[in-house]
Amino acid sequence: MAKTFTAQDLRTRCAAIVQAAGSAPEEARLVADNLVLANLSGHDSHGVGMIPRYVDAVLEGGLAPNASAKVLLDIGTMLTLDGQRGYGQVIGEQAMQLGIARAKLHGNCIVALGNSHHLGRIGHWAEMAVAQNLVSLHFVNVLSRPVVAPWGGGDGRFGTNPCCIGVPLKGSEPFVLDFATSRVAQGKMRVAHNEGRTVEPGYLIDEQGRPTTDPGVVVVPQANGLFGALMTFGEHKGYGMAVACELLGGALTGGGTWHRAPDSARAVVNGMLTILIDPARLGTQDGFEQEALAFVDWLKQGPAAPGSDGVRIAGEPEREARTRREREGIAIDDQTWAEILAAEKKLG
Fold first, then answer.
1. Are residues 165 and 131 in the same domain?
2. Domain count, the chain
3. Which end of the chain is more exposed for a tag (fewer CB within 10 A), N or C?
4. pLDDT confidence tier of residue 240, bands split at 50, 70 and 90
5. Alpha helices in 21-71 (DSSP H)
6. Is 291 exposed, middle or buried (0-12, 13-18, 19+ CB in 10 A)?
7. pTM for the complete prediction?
8. Range of the domain at 47
């Protein structure tokens, strides 16, 4: 079963919880708005269901309310930032605002952000960039209990390590590619477990390294106290991309990589390497605009595959979901809602 809420109802409720956990009203609003936007976009894995984990992380000391991004280095075209374990919804916005301003001034900027708490849906940061007519690339690592197995491995060794690319398209909606390097996001397994569903074969291995369709193996400890793991997408190719995200988002940013035994801490710490490019400063602007649109049009002129609604580009499903969910409301399963209510009680 599920309850359906308006987006504004969820924003108000979540902002109140985040504020009760110690955040200033403006920070609470930013966090709530970001989470609800993820729900509206069809990504419940990164939406208000994260609130219980955030509350636990604050209470444990792994998430610092009211922290800001600290500038460690600024040479104009390169920024190194320390997120100081602040809410990623706030730290990420600060990092992108700084990077966008530098890219507008210099034509490009590389932003190395380490030590931020959970940055949420990375597509949100690409959307900020394309709204300013910038191309953006994002490589992210995850410092938390490792939930993804390397290709050929039998247990979790790293996180879902997302990659995201945003490209503005003149006079049209942008291309926003945002994906976990695991077959599916960890949060989607939490949602499936809470809803009592199994998942498709090929997503998971259990605590003994055997294939399973039970999402609970990566959500709750199994009989022996161990967890299963998610698989990477694309076999060895997705695994290679996950490692690249760990090296770029973790090692290069200064945020660090995961190379220790799992623990039960609830904090989710991200590093993100962002590359921002202003096409207007490359000298290829006219050709870029024409060729990008021509290629997207070419894709969409092709026939639909049997059983398909036709060709779409990355970013379209999220925009369609927003329109639909703004109109119809956002459904929250009973287990997730119970966890949110429990988080409220922890804060009194």
1. yes
2. 3
3. C
4. very high
5. 25-40, 51-60
6. exposed
7. 0.94
8. 1-66+318-348
